[in-house]
Predict the 3D structure of the following.
Amino acid sequence: MDLSTTYLGLKLKNPIVPSSSPLSQRLEDIKKLEDAGAPAIVLFSIFEEQIRHDADALDHLLSAGTESFAEALSYFPDVGDYHVGTEKYLELIAAARAAVDIPIIGSINGISPEGWTDYAVEIERAGASAIELNTYYIATDPHRTGAEVEEMYLDVVRAVKAAVKIPVAMKLSPYFSSTANMAVRLAEAGADGLVLFNRFYQPDFDLDEMEVRSDLNLSAPAEMRLPLRWIAILHGRVKTSLAGTTGVHSGRDAAKYLLAGADAAMTCSALLKNGVGHLRTMLDELQTWMASKEYESVAEMKGAMSQQAVENPAAFERANYIKILEDYKGKYILA
Amino acid sequence: MDKKRIAIIDGNEAAAYIAHKTNEVCAIYPITPSSNMGEWADEWSAQGRRNIWGTVPTVVEMQSEGGASGAVHGALQTGALTTTFTASQGLLLMIPNMYKIAGELTSTVFHVSARSLACQALSIFGDHSDVMSVRQTGFALLASASVQEVMDMALIAQASTLEARVPFLHFFDGFRTSHEVAKIEMIEDERIRAMIPDELVIAHRARALSPDRPVLRGTAQNPDVYFQGRETVNPFYAKTPEIVARAMAKFAGLTGRAYKPFDYFGAPDAERVIVIMGSGSETVRDTLDYWAKKNSGEKIGLVAVRLFRPFSAAHFLSALPPTVKAIAVLDRTKEPGSAGEPLYQDVVTAVNEAFTAGTLKIAAGLPKIVGGRYGLSSKEFTPAMVKAVFDELKKTAPKNHFTVGIHDDVSHTSLDYDRNFITEPDSVVRAMFFGLGADGTVGANKNSIKIIGEETDLYAQGYFVYDSKKAGSRTVSHLRFGPEPMHCPYLIQSANFIGCHQFIFLDQVDVLKYAKEGATFLLNSSPYTPEEVWDKLPRKVQEQIIAKRLKFYAIDGSRVALDAGMGSRVNTIMQTCFFAISGVLPKDEAIEKIKYAIKKTYGRKGEEIVKKNYKAVDMTLEHLREVPVPAAATSRRELPPVVSPKAPAFVQEVTAPIMAGLGDDLPVSKMPVDGTFPTGTTKWEKRNISLFVPVWDENECIQCGQCGLICPHSCIRSKIYEPSALEGAPATFKSVEWKDKANPGKRYTLQVSVEDCTGCGLCVEVCPKKSKTRVGHKAINMAEKEPIWEAEKANWEFFLGLPEVDRGGLDLSSIKDVQFAQPLFEFSGACTGCGETPYVKILSQLFGDRAIIANATGCSSIYGGNLPTTPWATNAEGRGPAWSNSLFEDNAEFGMGFRLTLDKQREFAIELLQTLRSELGDAFVAEIVGAPQRTEAEIAAQRARVAELKKKLSGLNSWQAKHLASIADALTKKSVWILGGDGWAYDIGYGGLDHVLASGRNVNALVLDTEVYSNTGGQASKSTPRGAVAKFAASGKPAGKKDLGMMAMCYGNIYVARISVGANPRHALKAFLEAEAYDGPSLIIAYCHCIAHGINMQKGFDQQKAAVNSGHWILYRYNPSLAAQGLNPLSIDSKPPSIPLKDYIYSETRFKMLSLSKPDEAARLLQLAQADVDQRWTLYQQWLQTPPTEPAAAPTAE
C-alpha cells in the first residue's frame, strides 16, 4: 500500500504529520516521532512577541536596581551568554536535521514585518525544509477593516516568500468573510500550502476568582468538521498544497481529510493525549481502513469526497438546520 | 600608551586582575567597596581563566572576614599563593590573623580598598582609618594613588612579598580609586612572570607545612624567649624597603612606569612640601602641574608616599628636597587623643632622628612640620585645599593638627580655602550627568568612557556619585576626557557639559551650579517638549542659563524612550544626545560607535534588545532640539523649599541641607557629638518618586486592612473616628461608615500619603475586593498622581490630625484591627516594593512604643539609619522604637546587651522599691512589682503606675529615690528586637545568634531572609537555595539552604517561627505576638522577596505564595510554652506542597538565568532542590508526629 504523499513539494512517506506542538521541543522527542512513523514534523512555533517579551524581561530583571546604590551596583554575576531569542530554536532545527531523515518544518508567529522575515531567513539557514506561518491575529480594532486584515496576511506571505527559497505554508484562521477567496489570494501571493485551521486560545471565566483565564484544550474529533468542509471546498480550486489540522485522533479521522482533498492530515492532541506511539496506531488504522475500502494509495483517496466529487455538493454549503429540512426527500423524486 | 594594551577599568578590577594572575587561592567575603575584587576573581575562575602559571585559582567565599583571613592563613601555611580582598570592619576582623601571618614571615598580599571605620556612624566611603588600624601588625603597607597605580603596585607588592617574606597590604582609596573608571595600560602575563621569579614561589612552597617534612609552627612561648623571638624578624623588615625599591626599578624596566618608595614631584628647590599618600597625592600633583604650567615660580613640592610600612626614614629623607623649610603631612584618618596622625608622627620622627643624629641634609636645618587631616569618608580633596595647605606653610607659625575641607567652628582646626580656585584645564572635556539610578544613566556613561577611551587617543576618567536611597535614587556622573593622563581624583568643579536626565531635578538640586560659562546644557525635558520647556523652567534655572550663556539643548527623552520600547530607561537616548552635541567625536563616527557598544553590551541578552536600542539612537537624532534662550528670565516659578516650614529646627538646619546636597557646607557645630539623631524624620522628606499612586475607592472597600498591612513604605493608613471629627475636612477627603456592628456610628477613612508612595502597586495586588460591575477595578487602584496631588496632600494633612485609635481596644492578632495601630516605621528609602519592610513596619505597629532594636548592618540598617533621614518614628506620646546599629557580626550580642541592662535595671529598681516601701506605700510597691503586662491595657496601666512612681519619687531626697527615678522606666515592659538579614543570621553573626538564643534571655530575633546578601549586591549566603545564581555562586549554588529554624528548634527552649506575610499574613501576626509574649528567646525567620531575586516586585507576594505552595518555605511555629504543657510545640501551618518547585523557582531570574546559561546544570540542581523540598517536608512531618517525651525545661537566664 502506497501511503506516500506530496506536501509543499516535499515527498512524504505517509500523510499523517505531527503538527506544531510541545512534542517537538526536544531532540529526543523529535527522534521518537520519526521512529513512530512521522513523515515530517512541524516544529513548535517561535512567537516573536514571546521572544521580545522574554528578552525585555531578562534585560529588565538583570538590570533592575543596578547602578543606583553605591554598595550594590549590580545584583547578579555575569554568567556569559544566555540562550535566548531564536538561538535555541535554530540549534534544534540544525540538530534535528542531523539526527532525523524526515523534513523539518519551522513554524513562526510574528508580530512585525521584520519579525516574520528575519526569523524565516534564520530558519531556512538553520536547515528547515519548509516554513509554516502561524498567523494568529485577533482583529480587535474596530477601525480596522476586514480588507486591511486580509492585506496584512497577504503582505506576510509575499514578504516571507521574497526572503526565502524553501516552501512556505500558511496556517489560516477560519474567520474570513470569504475563506475561498482568501485562499486563492494567498496562493497568488505565493503560499505553497494552506493549513486549515489554526485553533486559538479562547478566554474562559474563573467564577471563584472572577478572573479571565485563557488556555487551549486538546481538540476533539468533532472539531474537524469546520476544516473538513473547507478542504473539501478548496480542493481543486487552489493550486497550493492543503493540510487539514484539528481533530485527527485516529487513522479514520486522517482518512476524512485525505478524502476531502488534503495532502496531509496533521495531528497533535491525539499524540499529546496518547503518547507519541499513537502515531503508529493511527497509521495502522489508516491502512486498515484503506484496505477495507480497497484503496491502494493515498493519491487515489485525495479529494474523493471533495465538494467537486461528491454527489451532493450542497452538503458543504449547508449552514444551518433549515437546509437539512429541505432535503427530506430524494432529489430525483419529482412529486 | 600602547593601544593594544589599554583597558578601561576601575581600581577594583585592576587589583583583582593582578591578584588573580598571581595567586592560587582567594578566600573572600563581601564588604563595600572591596566586594567587586572578590566578584571579579570568582567570575574569572568560574570562566576558567588561568593565572600566569596556567592554573585556575580557587576562589572560596567564607562566612566572615575573620573566616576569610583564617582560611588565607591556613592556605599560606600549606604553601598556596593566597590572597584576599577587604576593607574597613572586614580588615579589622582580619587583625588577629594578620599578626600571625606577619609573625610567621609569610608572603602574601591583601588588597584593600581603604574605607572609613564605623565610629559615631558607619560610612562606606574612603579614607585610611582601616589601613592605619593595622599598621602595627607587621604587614608592609603599600599605597596606590590611581587606577593605573593599583595595577602596578599590586604586582610590585606581590613581587616584593615573595622576596622579603614580609606580608603586604596593598591599598587604595575606597570608591575614589576602587570605583573610578580610567583608561590604563594592562600588564601582560610575560611581564608579570618576569616580576615574579619561579624560585621565590618555590621557596614559599618549601616553607609550607607538610607531613612529608613535618615541622611545628604556632607554638606557645614563655617570658624567657618570646621577646627574643619577636626580635628575630628585624633584618627582614630592614631589607624590605630596598627590596621594594628594586622591584619598582625592575618594574620600570619592564613597563616604563617608574616609582619609588617615596616619589618626589615639584620644584627641585622647593621650600614648602606636602607629604601625603593615596589618591590625595594625585590632587597635589595636579595642583603642582597647574602652577608649573603657569610658570608661577612657586617653590613647592610633593612627597608621594608609596611604601608606608616598613617606614624607611632613609628613603623618605632622600626624597625631600634639601631646600625644604616647611612640611605639611596630610593624613586621611583620625586618631582622637593621639599626638598626631600616623604619617605625621613618622615624618616628625624621621626628620628629628636625623637632625639629632646630625645626618639631616637640609640646608636651613630643622624644617617646620605640621600635620593635618583631610578627606575622611571620601570628603572631597581639591586643588583649592592643596593651595590652602601650601599657603598655610608660608606662615611663620602654620597651624598644626589642622583640618582641611570642612568648616570646624568648634575646635577651629580647619583651614579656609578659596572655592573659586579651580585648575581644570580647557583641553579636558568635563561632563556631568544627573540621572536616576533607574534610568540607566551610569551604565550609559560607563559605555561612553569605553567608547572614547578605546576608540580615541584621549584619556578618560569616570566617577559616579550615588545617594543612599534604594528606591528613586539619584546619580551624578563625572566624566573627563583629555589628551594627557589625568591626576584629578576629585569631582568636576567646572563642567563644560551638563546633562540633566530628569526634569524634576531642576527643582531638587542645583544642577547648573558647576556649569562653566558657555557650557552646553542638555535637558530631558519630559513631560514637556523642547518647544514648551523654556517656560516650564524654574526662574533660577532660567537665570543661570542666561547668566552663564549656556547652549541649551532639550529632548522629550522619556517620550522617545517609550516610543522606542525602552520603558523608563532614557540612557541610550541621552548618551546619543551627548555624542551628537558635545563634539568629543565626529557625530557620525560617534553614532556608529554607540551602536557597536550597544551590540557589545546587550548582544548576550538577545538581538531584540540590541534592535530596540538601535531604534532609540535613530529616534533621538530626530527629536533633539536646540532651545533658543531669550535675553531675560520669564519664569515666575520659584524653587520649592526643601522641607516644610513646619519641620523642627534640627531638620531645618541639618537634615534639609543634607537632603539638598549641601551637607558639605555644614560646620562641625551642627553635627551631634556622639552620633545621636532624632527619629521620625523621613516624614519631612517628601520624595515624590512615583508618577502613579493608589487611590482608595471607599464604596468598594470592605475595610479589611490588608493593603495597609503590607504597604512596604507605610503610606496607607486607616483610622476610625467620630463623625464630628470630620469638621473642617477638605472637600475631597473620603470617609465612609465603619462597617463593624460592635462599634456602630463611627466613620472610617483609608488615606494614602501620595508624596511618600513609591508606586510599588503591592496594595492593589493584595486587595481582595473586586468591583461587581468591573472586576478589573478593586477597592484600591493605581492612578496618575499629578491630577490628585494637591488634594491628597491636604487630605493627608487632615488625616494626620484625626485622633489615633486607642490601642487598648485593638485585637492585634486581627489584620482588620492592626490597620489602626500606628506604624512607627514609615517612608523608608528601601527598594520600591521591598519584601523586608512590611515585617519591620508590622513590628513597629505591634510593639513599637516599647521596642528597642539592635539592627545588623545590611539593607535594614541602611534604609533604617542612613542619613539624611530615618523612618523610625514616634507616636503622639513621644514613644517609639529606639534603634541602633553596632556592627554586622555582633548584632545578636548587641541586642542581648540591651536585655541584660533592662533586666538588671528592673531587678535593681525592684530592690530600690523594697527599700523605699515605707515612703511609697506597701500596696503601691506590691502592685507595681507584681503588675501583669501581657496586654496593651496592662502595659498602659503599668506606665501610669510608673508615672505615679516618678511623681512620688520627685518629692523624696534620698539617693535611692534618685537612682530609682533614673531606672523606673525599666519597670514597664520593653521589647528587645534583634533585626538583620540572612548574611548576618546565617553567616557572619551565626555564632553570636546561636549563643544569644541559647542564653535563654528574653530577646526576639527577626531574620529578614532574602536568601542572599542584598545590600552588598547579591552574594550567596548559606541561606541561598540550591540552584540559585548569586555572586560567588555563578554556576548556581551547589549546596542546599541551611535550615536555621530547625537548628534553633533543637535547643527546645527557643520560640521559632517561619513566616511569610505574602502567603499568610494572619500567621505572621500570630508569630510576632507569640514570639514577643514568650518569656525567653525567640527567632522569627521571615521570607522576604527582593530585587536581588530578579522578579517583578509588584508580584512579590505571589512569589511568597509560590515559595510556600511549593514547599520551599514551610510555615511553622515552634512554641516551647506548649511543650511545658505536654503538647507538641511544633505546628506546621502551611499545607503540603501543591505545586512543583520548578513552578516557583523558574518564575525568578536568580534561578531562571541558570536554565538560560547552563541548562543541563540547572536541570541537575532542580532535581536535587526538589528532593530537598520533599525530604524536608517529610522530616518536618516526622517532628510533628513525635510528641515530646517530657516537658522541656522552662527558659532560664543562666
Summary: DSSP finds twelve helices and twelve strands in chain A. Chain A touches chain B through 36 residues (CB under 8 Å). The first helix of chain A runs from residue 27 to 35. The first strand of chain A starts at residue 5 and ends at 7.
